[in-house]
Amino acid sequence: MQPDVDNQLPVSTPKRQRISEANATGEKRTNGDGVLELTPSKRVKRTPQKPHSETPAALKASGLRTPSNRSKAKALFSTPTKENIVSTATKARADRSAKKKSAQLLLEQDEEDIWDGGDRLAEEILAGENDATAPINKQDNGVFETVEEGSVETTMEKTVATPKRRAGRPKGAKNKRSPTPEGELPAHERYFFQNRAGPPRTSNNNLNKVNLLNHEEYFEKHAQRQDPCKREITFLCDLHRRSFSQWDFEFYQGFNICLYGYGSKRTLTQNFADWLYRKHGFSSPPSVVIVNGYTPNVSIRSIFATIVTAVLGADIPSKMGSQPIEVLELLQSVLKSRPSQDPIAVFINSIDAPTFRRAANQALLARLAATPKIHLLATADTPNFLLMWDISLRDQFNFVFHDCTTFAPFDTEFDVVEEVHNLLGRKGRRVGGKEGVEFVLKSLPENARNLYRLLLTELLSMADDDHNAADDDMDAADGGAENGPKDEAGIEFRALYQKASEEFIASSEMMFRTLLKEFHDHQMITSRMDTSGMEILSVPLSRDEMEGVLEDLVLG
Amino acid sequence: MMDADVGGLAEDFSNNQGVYIYRPALAGISQGERPSKRRKVAPEPKKSNDNTCPFVPLLNGDESEKSVRLRYQTYEQLWSTQEAKIQEILDDVDAEVLECVSSFVRTTSPEIYGGCIPAALLTVGSNVSSLARLLARLNDQLTSTGEGSVIVLESGDAPNLKTTLKNAIRAAIINTEGNDGYQSFLTDREGPRLLGYDLDLLGDYVKRKNIKHLVLAFRDSEAFDPGILIDLFSLLSSWLDRIPLTLLFGISTSVELFEGRLPRSSVALLKGSYFELHGASKCVDHIYERIQAEGQFWLGRSLTGVLFEKSSDYFQTPEAFCRTVKYTYMSHFFANPISVLLASDIPDDLQQDRLCESIRNIPSFREYCEILLEDGHTRRVRDLLEDDSYLFQQTIQLIKAGQQSMHDMFQAVRFISLLLKDLNIPKKANISELSIRALSGELQDSPLLEDILAAFRRLDSSKIEEILPHLPEAMTKLPGFRDIETDLRALLQTHKGPDPLRSEYDSQNSVIGTTIVQQRVKLNQGKAKLPEECVKYTGIIDCSHALLSSYFGTILIRPQELAFHEAFLLDMRNPIKEVFAPRPRFAIERALSNPFDYLMFTSQNTESRISAKQPPTSILYQLYLESGALVNIHDLWQAFHAVFESEQGDGCDERMTMALFYRAVSELRALGMLKHSRKKMDHAAKSAWMGL
């Protein structure tokens, strides 16, 4: 038996090994001998465990199962649970109860006491059901027995290094993928250390249980906040304000100014504008044009046009031209023709904002900066903004740089909640979750509401089916869960259309599409292509929210 | 239209407006009180703008207005003379190439080239600004004589053929007619209105203005899309009979590479010649030399280092170099109250308590006093410390003396570089290098100087005669120089031979004898028998050698040892380095990882530990630094929350902390440090490593 089952044996053992040494899977990949453990040559080590794998068939069954990636890492503490102990006595009953429990576990993930490997075990147990019933028992039996008998070894291996395994363990311990290496590494070493090959070793926690903020709550909390550093920040800004006269002198000498550093510099520029007014007196107020680069609708042409307005006042030419370059040339010729014109100060907040980042835009701004009588003050927020400019642009800009770290919050610059949700890949929250969807639905015609109700019903019933049946789809859904939230489960376009026409919601595909378009516009549905090229529609809401919306739709 | 709206807008509105004309939101100028503002304007049309001084009073604001004004005037005066010199150099530097190019433009015509478009290829290398300068001057030349003009196109002007043509035509017309002229040119014409990119417009313009040479210059020709160039060439070549075009290409790489990007059929349409502009470094060296040798205010060693590092390592243009120098002048006079003493005529009533006090506080004054004390001049020191007017008078004298010795030093540097060239000393040292060494006081007793002195002894009389007029003034004033000079002249008068006189140190005048002593060859240098004249000449050379070395000894001092050098020597890296070569990433990382470097926390302990007292983003950033390449946002949130929880205990508002967390995460994302990751749910990828 021993030599014959070679092929199967290692297949089955890795599972155990995975269970027992899951902690180490990460580093096993990185160092060379980790691979070796999976090869047959290592079987010598496994000998004590072999007797328990009763038949090759059973092993094969388990071997088939293992490749599913969900049981890969992190299953470590899964084995020594109560269920296992019970199992030996009354296997069948215990199996059933374990399956029930697991299904429950997967369904109600918000239970408080979920431990790390819980899902894994549950999935494993459920997956086991797919196999032929006869092997299951044997297999389970095998596994459980192994666990019990091998527990001496496995528990030792995984918990604390026991004298027995100590020789091998420190090596693994050294390789332990702690994100912060001991000691102070130089920056580049740290980079390479943190970017080693291998799967990410982060926990599987996610924010599903955390109630995320919406805009209103964020702003409410934001308004309540008392900044503990308020005094210091004010002091810092006062320090910057002292340089106003210096900046003015730099302007006067033909330099342009660029302010950088952490914190919003918008108030600072506004203060500077005020200061300029006060200094030059209200009798001959300086012309200050302020540009907020972070606003999405600002265009280079509008900047130039506003400057022209600032110079000419009422007598703007009726046609300025549609290209920014034409307006700029108009501006330049106007300035040239008016030698007595006072200089125009142009303050650009966030010159490195996404809308301005394009090289063409920066080139235009540089030309503006190089225009005599234009004093440009730009602020830059990102750390790498200098990369936008090559030598000739730098030359045209003629900047002097000042570190103006203010620590002021970027309240107007960034849409905080939006940014965070984008980062998390939860774009659907943009419509404002449930409330937003309901608000949109209220304004839509009856038909559209019916369609949305139908969509939600289908999705929810599909989800219920998925959870209850826990069949192949489950596996697929699990696979998908790695990539996106679970609520990605969707309905096929054709199927929905079928249902919709059955319910006389849409009489033609054209109409159906028109209705869907409305939802798309409000980001109430998402659509994607699955592997077979079918269009899958889904709703970017959580299950609870879907239920809530559906409830309101049906009742309302 | 805009300003009418903006008048009394709430700040909140203006924050979300893309672009607007600013009106102050100060008290007293709100919308309601506009009339009063208008009333103010009427009675006093202020003309004070001309004599407002951009400088602020220093010395805690106690500096007198007169002094401030004088400081500013001194700055203006000193810098304007320097600027004029720089401009002269800049004009001069490419004059030769300009001459070639303009004569090329004036003489070429398609007929000469057999129907091809005449083209001038200019390689500029890294000296990008020189081309713009040259084109501007060429344009001035051509327009002033009415012969034609220069159209400059940049790659940004040429996204497609239509726009390129339109831009070129407009630029050509605006150049001479102005914007209004262009508009009227478009509209005031018979027949159908032409579109902006119709070359008929240009042809018409050429005919009306009787233009003979129209130069179309491609400033950064490599950046143009070759497809557009190809179309443009074929189009222009068919218009060549109506528009007398000459093309001009600025090439940063090489002519071969430029040609390689175009198909042969296009290249065959062009014919012309090739010009080369010189590198920027020579020009920069020249400017630096002029500024330092003929100034009244000097840039110190480390500042010079920074300047040359920038211009050589970062391909800074000569203009940018000058601006940097200008900025050093600006910062010196703006922020140093003692700089007022550089004014050409200082009124007697300038002296004031605060200024004298500050003079007494500068380090070089203290050193000066210590030296005086060592020499036993206690009386003078007492006077300096107690008598303001004596101090003032002494200071001015010493500053004048210091300026003179700085001046002499740079004369010496110039002389050394001249000698290096004349004496064929293999060591190549340009002015900038020599200046840095001189400014740090290293030139004295350096091997370089020894080489020069040794080589000087071997000079023959003809070379000496060449060098004589270039001798620095300070050397000619040394005692003994006159005698040597007259002796030399007398000797040269009597000397009639065709060969110049040689000293005994010259290799021609030494004989190498070989003797064999105990089977070994021994070389011994013996002196050849010298004629009378040469012996005399050797005497003169010996004297002048001694004179030269004593000259170098007295002139090449360490500038930092000069009394009151603070007034006329600026030697700080920092304003310049920070202002022209900023490190924004470092600044942001520092602000986030050590926020108390910026926020002067007075009461709290300012250890680098994470605490809830810090701004939220910097707390998060420090947690972020500890994470790996992939960050679990949930865990990050937990850690963030724990920071607040541990400090605030039960009083910690979780939703509030969440709001702070949101703010911090959004900022890190906007700063480009976190980005969305598809690897795992609710994970983000780290995209910046501190210190890299």
Radius of gyration of chain B, rounded? 35 Å
CATH homologous superfamily designation of the largest domain in chain A: P-loop containing nucleotide triphosphate hydrolases
Structural class of chain A: alpha/beta
Beta-strand percentage range of chain A: 5-15%
Report the CATH topology name of the largest domain in chain A: Rossmann fold
What is the mean pLDDT of chain B?
79
Tell me the distance between the termini of chain B. Answer: 49 Å
CATH class of the largest domain in chain A: Alpha Beta
- What's the number of extended β-strand segments of chain B? 13
State the shape of chain A: elongated
The CATH superfamily title of the largest domain in chain B:
P-loop containing nucleotide triphosphate hydrolases
Helix content of chain B: 55-70%
Largest sheet of chain B: 5 strands, parallel
Strand order of the largest sheet of chain B: 3-4-5-2-6
Count of folded domains of chain A:
3
Question: Could you explain how this protein is built, in words?
Answer:
The complex is a heterodimer of chains A (556) and B (692). With 556 residues, chain A is α/β, with parallel strands linked by helices. Chain A has three domains: 4-174, no CATH class; 230-403, P-loop containing nucleotide triphosphate hydrolases (Rossmann fold, 3-Layer(aba) Sandwich); 429-555, no CATH class. In chain A, 54% of the residues lie in helices and 7% in strands. Chain A has 25 helices and eight strands. Chain A has helices at 8-30, 32-38, 43-46, 56-65, 82-87, 91-107, 118-128, 133-158, 169-174, 187-194, 215-224, 230-241, 244-252, 266-280, 300-312, 324-337, 359-370, 391-397, 416-423, 433-442, 446-469, 472-483, 493-502, 509-521, 543-555; strands at 256-260, 287-292, 344-349, 374-379, 399-403, 491-492, 526-529, 535-538. Chain A has a five-stranded parallel β-sheet, with helices on both faces. In chain A, a hairpin with a 5-residue loop joins strand 7 (526-529) and strand 8. In chain A, helix 1 (8-30) packs parallel to helix 8 (133-158). The longest helix of chain A has 26 residues, at 133-158. Chain A is elongated. The N and C termini of chain A lie far apart (69 Å). Mean pLDDT of chain A is 69; it is low at 1-88, 109-118, 131-177 and 470-487. Chain B is α/β, with parallel strands linked by helices. Chain B folds into four domains: 1-45, no CATH class; 95-277, 3-Layer(aba) Sandwich (Rossmann fold); 285-444 and 556-567, no CATH class; 584-686, Arc Repressor Mutant, subunit A (Orthogonal Bundle). In chain B, 55% of the residues lie in helices and 10% in strands. Chain B has 30 helices and 13 strands. In chain B, strands 3-4-5-2-6 form a five-stranded parallel β-sheet, with helices on both faces. In chain B, helix 9 (226-238) links the parallel strand 4 (213-218) and strand 5 (245-251). In chain B, helix 4 packs antiparallel against helix 12 (280-293). Chain B is globular and about 90 Å long. The two termini of chain B are 49 Å apart. The chains are: A alpha/beta (556), B alpha/beta (692). At the A-B interface, helix 10, helix 11, helix 12, helix 13 and helix 14 of A face helix 2, strand 1, helix 3, helix 7 and helix 14 of B. Strand 2 of chain A pairs antiparallel with strand 1 (19-21) of chain B.
